[in-house]
Amino acid sequence: MDDSDKRARVARQTNPFLTMKQAAFHLGLSLRSFQRLQAAGTGPRGRRHGRSWRFHIDDIEAWSRGGATGGDHD
Known about the structure:
This protein is of the alpha+beta class and 74 residues long. It has a single domain, classed as Orthogonal Bundle (Arc Repressor Mutant, subunit A). 54% of the residues lie in helices and 14% in strands. It has a three-stranded antiparallel β-sheet. β2 and β3 form a beta hairpin. α2 crosses α3. The longest helix has 12 residues. The mean pLDDT is 86. This is Excisionase family DNA binding domain-containing protein. It comes from Sphingobium yanoikuyae ATCC 51230.
């Protein structure tokens, strides 16, 4: 099990909704890169909670898997 799998498991057990900053970290992206993906409409699905955006860990993982190429990434 790699580090991202561990982080995803912990996130599901505690709070499955991540902030934009947490989601970027989980994916190994800079916050600015993640914001650009969201602005372009090409990032993971997000949900508005109050005045801030939250990203469910399952949506982040599904988006990440969707972009995998080559080799066995399951």
